[in-house]
Give the backbone structure.
Amino acid sequence: MYLKSRIKLPENRGTLSTRLTCWYASAFIAFLFTTLACMYLAIGSILDHRLEEDLIEDVEEFREYLVSGGLESIYEEIQREVKHNDQSTFFIRLFDGKGRLIAASDLNPWTGLPPISALDTFTADKKPALKGLSLPDHEHDIKMATGALTPDLLLQVGESEQENDEIMDILLLVSSVIFFVIIPLASYIGWIMAQRAVSGIREVSRAAQDIKNGLLDRRALVQRSGDEITELAETFNAMAERIRTLISEMHEMTDNIAHDLRSPLARIRAISEVALTGQSSTEAYQKAAADTLEECDRLLHMINMTLDVAEAEAGVGNAQKEELNLSELALEACELFGPLAEEKSIKFNVAIDPGFLLPGNKHNLQRMLANLIDNALKYTPENGAVTIQLQGGTSGIKFSVADTGIGIPAAEQARIFERFYRCDQSRNQEGCGLGLSFSRAVARAHGGDIYVQSETHKHSVFTIALPILSNPPTEQRFLHPAMKTS
């Protein structure tokens, strides 16, 4: 109930494809609106600027006519302008030095034009002044350019903004049509894009639902488009395969645990039944109790080893790391197993470089080294050989245990580090299949790893690679004369 309350999604949020459609359409509409608005304002500004330039050019042309042809030329040009232009949209006024109107186009459509009263503010060498004006009887504003032709002549040219307004009205209409036609089109395209974007997510979701319902072999179909959805599907498939593998391993591990637990429990039950039936002597009861304790110890050892492996894999105890001399730990382990090698007539070759220091957990490292040496001696027949080496350099330390034992089949080498896995499926050999799992967990907890090379009925070599803290001297140190160099 707690987990469900943590991951419960708000209601009525809509599907992802719906939200993506809204996002796509909204983004496109905002972009289109901004583009059309900027285009509308820019075109309006350009039209105004061109109208102003045309009016200024008209004044400058009249100045040139005055210079080339005198006042008569001005009158003639005014008549030509009146003849060729619509006087409802264009006007010209010419004033003398006292502000009196001496020539003009038809001003009847232009009632309300202001008089000229400040001729002294204009000079012939000054750029014409521009001004916008609104007249009561005119629907459209006008632009005027006023400039002095001579100190005694003032010309005013004006033009209605009707043409510009009509262009802007047409542009506004076209923009509105485009905008409102594009909205449903953008929404539809956004919906298609959203459906395409979430199709891979839907496939992953359906695959996850099927796996939840027990179809562990179900995988998401991967579309090789190279995008994040493809990466999600591939990652999901890898995760699903890993889960299936873990469940399979868990089932096998459970079977192995059940087998390992059943044997000692069956023996304990058999011992107890024998002790309870018949008239047994005190010695028989004592032997039954001793056998029961032995089987209980075996069960406790297996349980403790399982906990130790879990702790090592989780890194529990790493906080208690101290600087250790791995060379000395390896020598102590060899001294411990030396008598066992002599008892089995196994040639015990040892080559340990001194002075290898690393931070670690002493107890776990000792058990890791002991596990490898014990396995080598256990699976090596009489008159065989076990070679132990500790070497290193700038890249790190390598501790290897090589034997001439029964070897490991190639098909099983990848699984020997799994919990409770044993190559001896009959499980006749002593042990619970946790030693190598523990050794690998310890090696990885110390920043290293463990590797195996083996050939059936010939040899096995287990190598532990660990990071180095300091480099050793070049000389080698061996145990006692009975232990030869490799």
Notes: The chain has eight helices and twelve strands. The two ends are 63 Å apart (CA to CA). The longest strand covers residues 142-150.
